[in-house]
């Protein structure tokens, strides 16, 4: 019977899974990293949850809504936004993006526990 479990090197702070191996080697583990034994999973669709000490499937970001000329979306803390050529970090759980120009505007949402997502937003009230 084949062993379908793998060792995953996980970052305990970000939740990123660095790589997987079929056997544990004498690799040096840096601070805030650890090996976790788990069934074989796709690295792109999973992350390490340090609260439950388990590997879990990534989530999708919640939908946003328009409030006046702002696109408002509730996001997990430390979500990185790429918006109008700048990088922002969400610290308070809410992103409010002012869109006062017509056309589609790209925003990229990045968080290690979520699938990276590119959204194209267009203010229905912009002239």
Describe the structure concisely.
This protein has strands at residues 5-11, 17-21, 33-39, 46-49, 54-57, 65-67, 70-74, 80-83, 86-89, 94-98, 105-110, 117-121. By secondary structure, it is mostly beta strands.
Describe the structure.
- With 127 residues, the chain is mostly beta strands.
- The protein has no helices and twelve strands.
- Strands 9-8-11-12 form a four-stranded antiparallel β-sheet, with no helix packed on it. A three-stranded antiparallel β-sheet has the order 2-1-3, with no helix packed on it.
Observed structural traits:
127 residues, three-stranded antiparallel β-sheet, four-stranded antiparallel β-sheet, mainly beta
| Strand order in space, largest sheet | 9-8-11-12
Strand portion: over 45%
| Secondary structure: number of strands | 12
How far apart the termini lie comes to 65 Å
Draw up the topology in text.
Blueprint: E1 5-11, E2 17-21, E3 33-39, E4 46-49, E5 54-57, E6 65-67, E7 70-74, E8 80-83, E9 86-89, E10 94-98, E11 105-110, E12 117-121
Antiparallel strand pairs: 1-2, 1-3, 4-5, 6-7, 7-10, 8-9, 8-11, 11-12
């Amino acid at each position: 019977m084949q062993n379908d479990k793998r060792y995953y090197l996980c970052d305990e702070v970000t939740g990123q899974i660095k790589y997987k191996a079929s056997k544990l080697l004498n690799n040096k583990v840096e601070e805030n990293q650890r090996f976790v034994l788990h069934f074989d999973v796709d690295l792109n669709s999973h992350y390490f949850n340090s609260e439950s000490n388990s590997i879990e499937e990534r989530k999708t970001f919640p939908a946003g809504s328009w409030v006046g000329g702002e696109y408002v979306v509730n996001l997990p803390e430390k979500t990185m936004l790429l918006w109008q050529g700048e990088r922002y970090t969400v610290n308070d759980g809410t992103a409010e993006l002012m869109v006062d120009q017509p056309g589609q505007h790209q925003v990229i949402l990045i968080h290690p526990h979520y699938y990276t997502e590119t959204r194209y937003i267009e203010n229905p009230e912009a002239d």
